[in-house]
Amino acid sequence: MSPLTILQNRQSIKTSRAVSNLGLNRRVDRTCEPPPAKDFSLRNDIHDLGLVLDSKVKLILIESWDERRVLETLTSLAVRRALSIVLWSVTEGLQRLGFGTDGADQHNSTEPEAALRLIKADVQPTLYVMCDLHPFLSDNPKLVRLLKEIAMSEDAHKPTLVLVSHACKLPAEVQRYAARFALALPSEDELLAIVREEAASWSERNRNVRVRTDNKTLQQVVKNLRGMSHAEARVLARNVICDDGAITQEDLPELNKTKFKLLDLDGVLSFEYETARFAEVGGLSNLKSWLAARQSAFLSAAATDLPKGIMLLGVQGSGKSLAAKAVAGMWGMPLLRLDIAALYNKFFGETERNLRDALKLAEQMSPCVLWVDEIEKGLATGDNDGGVSQRVLGTLLTWMAERTAPVFMVATANAIDQLAPELMRKGRFDEVFFVDLPSSSIREQIFSIHLQRRELAAAEFDLVALAAASAGFSGAEIEQVIVSALYMAQAQQRAVDQALLVQAIQATAPLSVVMAEQITALRDWARGRTVSADG
Fold this sequence. Notes:
By secondary structure, the chain is an alpha/beta fold. Helices cover 45% and strands 13% of the residues. It has 21 helices and 14 strands. The strands form two sheets. The protein has a seven-stranded mixed β-sheet with strand order 1-7-2-6-5-3-4, sandwiched between helices. It has a seven-stranded mixed β-sheet with strand order 8-10-11-12-9-13-14. Strand 5 (127-131), helix 4 (141-152) and strand 6 form a beta-alpha-beta unit. The chain is elongated, with a radius of gyration of 29 Å.
């Protein structure tokens, strides 16, 4: 038998339809309207899984967290094809799910080896489903051999074995004889139908009170549910609605947090819970205008050339990280932070796998903003790491060139000379912005923002004088000046005033003085090569 690898991984993403508030609670007349969208998805899965059976492969692997839906699909397929279907679990042994006259439930079949021997001995084209067999395969050569013998059978009348688990790594001896199948994730139309059904269910339980929402928020909820299975999407939609009977903008952060917790099982990425608003970011007028012009294109399902991302190069403390957070806040999307340096693992190949897992998770969370902080720390070229950084760079470049999911990448860097030229060419990023030290007028804005954040009235201070005294200060250094003044005021049991702020400024040696040569070189390099973020 020739090696066989079948990969069925289909996800239909359709253009979302405009929905009115009334549509959330409408009742569907099953006699005159087509079946709900989820039934179409089930039919497609049944059809595609039937094609896998037609290929005469005897071992199929389905990895899914939604075991109930997998069993529903397999049972429906067995009924359509008049096949007997038998389910195995370590707690119940072999139990018949379908119909048929032969092969009654077997006793003493809770042991995997006994169950596999019964399956191998079956002379009927029965469909066997084994749930969570994977823990027994790691150190049991008999089970591996039994699986291989079942999979190698060329008799069309022998049974087909389906392994179902949330994750399963088949032994090397078996994996080339197995077909992998993945259930399709729900499309946006299906997700919208799920939200409507949950809204109607909530309404019935609450004296037909209508679920409150608006079209924009509803569409955002549907987009943020992408990447979830049918069951997971239903739970998330129910959680959004059940607390107050409304779907509002305030529900979106909690929805994204819950979605991320469901997906990020290995802690590959970190979810940034607090995303800044551009109103909290001083300056950056060019960057703000650039992002505003591309917001609708990125969020549009009909757009063909989605914005890919930006590189933020600049002086340390100039606000690059705050700007990255503000992109997500401005666009109303979840922000994922990837610390490339934390991906590195001492075992060969694990670092690249960690990066692939992180990028896959970002696609599942899409639409989202992927923030890669201090990218040069993990991708700096060198010959002292056994080529790991080069392989990581290659993995990232491939993903950046081939991704189709709406993941907007924001990379920040302090040392551009350490990055590979192929990362910086046009097409990897849409634009490279240079975030310089703030000008005098922008320093006034930054003082005002941080004073108000600490409940200090900005109008009571001479912002022009403070900006003039803090020439060469970054935004982070201005914030620390205010923090230092607060400490001094507390120690002296007095209120923060102009004199304390000036005293804190005079006591601070800014980075532009401490590392003047490096910052000058960076500014010289950026001139003519990048776009100024401040205009």
